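Quick one from the shared queue. A colleague (R.T.) flagged tRNA-dihydrouridine(20/20a) synthase as missing a structural entry in our internal table.

Convert sequence to structure tokens.
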Amino acid sequence: MTHAAKPLPPRRLSVAPMLDWTDRHCRYFHRLLAPHAWLYTEMVTTGALQYGDVERHLRFHGEEHPVALQLGGSDPAALAHAAKLGEAWGYDEINLNCGCPSERVQNGAFGACLMAEPELVRDGCRAMRDVVSIPVTVKHRIGIDRIEDYSFVRDFVGTVAEAGVTTFIVHARNAWLKGLSPKENREIPPLRYEFAHRLKQEFPEFEILVNGGLASTEQIEVQLKHVDGVMIGREAYQNPWALTEWERALFAPEWAPSREHVIAALVSYCEREKAQGTTVRAIVRHVLGLANGLPGARGFRRLLSDPQRLRADDPQLLWEAWACVSTSPTDATTD
């Protein structure tokens, strides 16, 4: 269990919770790139914390702060139990998932389908706030299925706010609960950032963050003229070096880490984790995009994905992969 030791930064930049991606190894890597960004766990269901391995789901590294635990669930008592565990383990925020559109989540009566039951979300948030002292926040869509009226999300936020929630992370697309895969739900429903902007205008006392489709510093700066913060998902994962640019733009203009420094830190991390039974594969799978845009990037990715080399479970593989980049001619075609 680990607790933040210093004041927490504002939520101007955060990395989205992403199933199968934002585990503790990914978050450790991202923290090396952006010291002030808020990091979020993969969604953890209340059932997993009631009946599963709590340590496996909640363990994280002190370096990850500020870090939020995202919960999936709808039963107020189960949410309260899970939130209490999250605070005891040292998380800085409890976030309720009201945005995931997958059918598996719907069958569990949580995720985006909860937007149709704002009173239930309100009651769940109230139950969590009653037992923890850290912030309880909600991540949600702007609508479900073909409901495209702004009043739907406005009324949802207004109802949930009755529980004392003041931070809302708005994925600015509808969630189509039938007919689209989760991947398609991140790409096909049109983005309507203006809905998040209107929420901030209508509820100026709330902290409103916007999520969905953001991939550049220019886009981020446009959004920050209207809302309090941005949450980035796929771009942060697939092109992680961009996090250093966003850190400079939003927090620390002098921030200038080197990729070699990041590799060195990851090698040390792999060695520590290997001693506790973690495989090198589990860590380096998150690092494949670190060399994107540089000569030799293809070789970097290839070596870190090579099954035979991964079976050797050697942290030095990271340095060998980096040699594909650092020894490439500077005038080579980037890949």
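Residues 259-274 form the longest helix (16 residues).
The mean pLDDT is 94.
Added to the table.
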